[in-house]
Specification:
The structure is a single chain. The chain is an alpha/beta fold. The protein contains eight helices and 13 strands. Strands 3, 4, 5, 6, 7, 8, 9, 10 and 11 form a nine-stranded mixed beta sheet that branches. The chain has a two-stranded antiparallel ribbon with strand order 1-2. A two-stranded antiparallel ribbon has the order 12-13.
């Protein structure tokens, strides 16, 4: 076991996680992205920037008949994700690769049936520098366009590509994704019912013609205006169920 880590779980103890004590840990964002992934039995799903496995392992638990690959450039995080896969007895169908994503996908064109990512949110110089142990979680090492190019390159034609990001970056996301596919679907994520969305889940399908963008009703993390209890949708997701949004056409 690595040092300076914690052993945690999600889905009421059914999925074990090995995480750093500080820094890039599993969050509500992780579980939302994991719950958003659709994959048929026998499919192969890629996560770009898998961290310690906070998306990869919950998604693999829910989609037990699919295979998963996570790519992570930080060796210590990749090792945590592997230990998590081992703890959950997933090593036969969950692989964690230590590599820089844009270089790795160059050898994996048109390989995956679904691709997802929750990339770092901020460009260097746009926010105050975070603590060293959190820099990988918040600052882009690869520009957003580079993340999306890597995801698109690795996806099979017509495969769904899903990204979770800040709501403030929605215009940039749609502009980039519109270059490479269609069937764009946007799910706004609100912290509370009365608050503006601060996250978005955006899904496209590689190579489809451009068309209308589907903007879905927003999902709230908390049920009340002052926080407190989780919304019904988040409670279901934290119990290990799929996100209730339209599957790819």
């Amino acid at each position: 076991m690595l040092s300076d880590v914690t052993q945690d779980s999600v889905f009421q103890g059914r999925v074990k996680l090995v995480q750093p004590e500080k820094g890039l840990r599993t969050s509500t964002d992780s579980l939302l992205l994991a719950a958003s992934v659709h994959a048929k039995p026998g499919s192969h799903v890629l996560e770009v920037g898998t961290g310690c496995g906070g998306v990869l392992l919950p998604a693999a638990w829910r989609l037990a008949e699919a295979r998963f690959t996570g790519v992570e450039q930080a060796p210590h995080l990749a090792e945590m994700a592997r230990q998590g896969a081992q703890a959950n007895r997933m090593l036969g169908r969950v692989e964690v690769v230590t590599a820089e994503a844009s270089a790795w996908v160059a050898h994996h064109e048109n390989r995956f049936d679904a691709v997802c990512a929750n990339p770092p949110f901020f460009r260097p110089g746009r926010v105050s520098a975070p603590a060293e142990d959190k820099a990988g979680a918040y600052l882009e090492a690869l520009p957003l366009e580079g993340w999306l190019k890597a995801m698109v390159f690795a996806a099979k034609p017509r495969a769904p590509i899903t990204i979770l990001h800040r709501a403030a970056e929605l215009a940039r996301l749609l502009s980039l994704m519109d270059r490479w596919g269609g069937d764009l679907t946007v799910l706004p994520i609100h912290p509370r019912p009365d608050a503006p969305a601060n996250r978005v889940l955006v899904r496209m399908r590689k190579g489809l013609r451009r068309g209308e963008v589907r903007l879905l009703p927003g999902l709230s993390v908390y049920a009340g205006k002052s926080g407190g209890a989780l919304s019904r949708e988040l409670d279901v997701i934290k119990r290990g169920m799929a996100l209730d949004w339209p599957p790819p056409k």
